[in-house]
Amino acid sequence: MNLSHSGRAQVLVEALPYIQRYYGKTVVIKYGGNAMISEELRRAVISDIILLRLVGIHVVVVHGGGPEISEMLKKTGKESRFVNGLRYTDQETMEIVQMVLCGKVNKDLVATLNRAGGQAVGLCGLDGGMLKAVRRQEEGVDYGLVGDVTEVDPKVILDAIHDGFIPVVSTVAQGTDQETSYNVNADTAAARIAVAVGAEKLILLTDVRGLLRDRNDEGTLISQVRLSEVPGLVSEGVITGGMIPKVACCVDAAENGVRRTHILDGRIPHSILIEVLSHAGIGTMIW
C-alpha cells in the first residue's frame, strides 16, 4: 500500500493517543501458531514488539513451541500424543520439552529480537521460581507431566523490565507436589503472568480471526465480549472447542485486574500494532 506523506503523518497522529495511554504500561503477548512458523509473520511480530518497546510500552513475550517439540520428538523416534488437546508428557517427553522450549525456541527468539534492534532476555518458568505448578488432576484422564499453575512470582520479569529488557518467557514450571518440571499451557501461563505483573493488556495470538458467531464464517467475528456475556455464549455453543480454554484464560485475566484481553489473528501481519496503536481494533476483546 502506497501512502502519501500526509497519509503517513495521519497514521502517526492516530497512534499518538494510544502511545500516551499505554506509555509505561505493560502488555503481555502470547506468541505462537503460524506467527511463529511463517518467516513473514515472524518478522512482523518482532518489529511490532520492538516498536512498542521503543515508544515506552513494556512488553512481556510468553511463547509456545509445539511444532518444534513435535519435530524433535520425531527425530528421536518418539510419537507425539495428545489428550484433550494437550500434549501427553511422560518423563522423556518432558526432557525434550524443557530442552526445546527453554533452549532452542527461547534463545532463537531472543536472538531474533536482539538482531532486529531490541534488547531481549530469555527466561523460563523455572528461573527464580517464576512459575510453580502441580500435576493436572482430572478424573479418568492422565496427561502425564502437564501442570496447572498454582503460583507466579514475577520478580525476575519485573527486574528485567526495570533494566530495560524485553522478557521472553518459556512455559516450563517448577513442580511443588513432586521434584519435577511441568509442561504448562502457554495461554494459561500468559494469563497468569499478565495478572502477576499488573499488565494493562493480554494478547493471545492465534490462527483464527477471533471469536466467531459461526465458526465456519469469518464474517461473523464478535469484536467485543463483556465478561457477563461469556456464560451465555458458552451455553449457545458459540464458544466451543479450542476457543473455550482461550476465552477462559482471558476471563481469568480480566477478572483479576487485566483491563483488556484480546484474541488476535496472528496470520495478519502487524496485528499487534493494529490492535494496540490504532482505532481499527481487530480480533475479539474480552473485558
Q: What would you note in describing this structure?
A:
The longest helix is centred in the middle third of the chain and has 25 residues, at 91-115. The two termini are 33 Å apart. It is built from ten helices and 14 strands. It has helices spanning 5-22, 34-37, 39-54, 66-75, 91-115, 155-162, 186-196, 230-235, 243-255, 271-277, and strands at 26-31, 58-63, 82-83, 86-87, 120-124, 131-135, 147-152, 166-170, 172-175, 181-183, 201-206, 224-225, 260-265, 284-286. The chain is an alpha/beta fold and 287 residues long. Helix 7 (186-196) runs parallel beside helix 9. The mean pLDDT is 94. 41% of the residues lie in helices and 21% in strands. The strands form three sheets. It has an eight-stranded mixed sheet, with helices on both faces. A four-stranded mixed sheet has the order 7-6-9-10. It has a two-stranded antiparallel ribbon with strand order 3-4.
